Amino acid sequence: MTRTASVASAAVGTDVTRVAVSTVIFSLRREPGEVRPTLVLPLVKRTRDPHESAWALPGGWLDIAENLESAASRTLAETTGLSPSYLEQLYAFGAVDRSPTRVVSIVYWALVREDISRTESFENVAWFDAASLPPLAFDHNQIVGYALWRLRNKVGYSQIAHGLLADEFTLAELREVYEAILGRRLDPANFRRQVESADTLLPTESFRTGSHRPARLYRYNQDVELADRGPLAH
Amino acid sequence: MTRTASVASAAVGTDVTRVAVSTVIFSLRREPGEVRPTLVLPLVKRTRDPHESAWALPGGWLDIAENLESAASRTLAETTGLSPSYLEQLYAFGAVDRSPTRVVSIVYWALVREDISRTESFENVAWFDAASLPPLAFDHNQIVGYALWRLRNKVGYSQIAHGLLADEFTLAELREVYEAILGRRLDPANFRRQVESADTLLPTESFRTGSHRPARLYRYNQDVELADRGPLAH
């Protein structure tokens, strides 16, 4: 092996396993004319092969001097300008045939509040309805499917919905977050009973006024973690 | 950079991130004289630096043509001879300072039935009480702590305990598995009521006889998955 060959093979990565970091970012969007919000995620249009011009999850290569979660935050900021309200490792995807060269992707999933997700506009980034994605690059459809499954599970036994809401919200707004995540309508009276008995919400003295009758604003009990991440919490 | 330098640096991995796969394997042991089983795990004594002669999780480097789960199974078989009844990805550990060179470890966790875990004896492998480990190599104490947390969570909402039991078992044996995992005693009458109402056990027509009065043998309902692994199930 000559030096040139060695450098070239390192550059294209045909003889090494490379580590990438990608992130599935969920947010909510209220489309004009739509009463209810939709669960959406940002994708980046690829500008080179493999899968040139296909949509893909935001991400990039892991730097040698960078922790995994830092790499997720950095690549997220570089590609979309977003900074998440919740970030958790999802899974390591490493099937041999998932890319022309060998790539193990450490995938994170994140939540971004609706207001923040609208503040930046990046080239080659677009937001998609999480429930109806086009065919994505690599195994990214499978990855999004798994992230949705994790989110739907977690919303049932944690305060994770908070990561998609402003600090204060009405019970109707909270219910709409659950409905957008679960993809189905929930009975308002049952929903109110369940969240009130769960003891994770604190009523405020403020009300949302508008075209409807005033609705009390709530906030999450900050003494309770957004989600129990066990000994890996930081 | 000369060719020699290139080969040397590739060999020690100072300028690349390498991917390793390790596995936390839980089993049960009934020590002589002890009535109740203990949750145990196998560790391998390291024979080279870093951390020479410290105990570490079974594992090894990911081959370029090998899937992650295959690597977990292979390194498990090579280092301990074990073949697990349950295997699931735990987490990717990738802190920059967890090793002198940059290593991202994709960690799996596994369950091995008690009878199988006794059939092989490998050099440099010993079984340890999961609740009282010595200081391990690298960040392996933290990794075992996280695996224990995952196992304790999962035993509450899945049939995962089955992975530590023979096909047929008494309710007392099942309760002992829960007690060993959770690290506390459970009320026998309450436990019986809970598992009977969960509908995941099927009574057989066989009984365990011995020094006590005959106890009915049960088996798990095979129509229910050991644990819901969502869209990643295979």
TrEMBL record, chains A, B:
InterPro entries membership: NUDIX_hydrolase-like_dom_sf, NUDIX_hydrolase_dom, WH-like_DNA-bd_sf, WH_DNA-bd_sf, WHD_NrtR
Coiled coil residues, start to end: none
CDD domains according to UniProt: NUDIX_NadM_like (cd18873)
Nudix hydrolase domain boundaries: 16-152
PANTHER family: ADP-RIBOSE PYROPHOSPHATASE, SLR1690 PROTEIN
Protein name: ADP-ribose pyrophosphatase YjhB (NUDIX family)
Organism name: Microbacterium halimionae
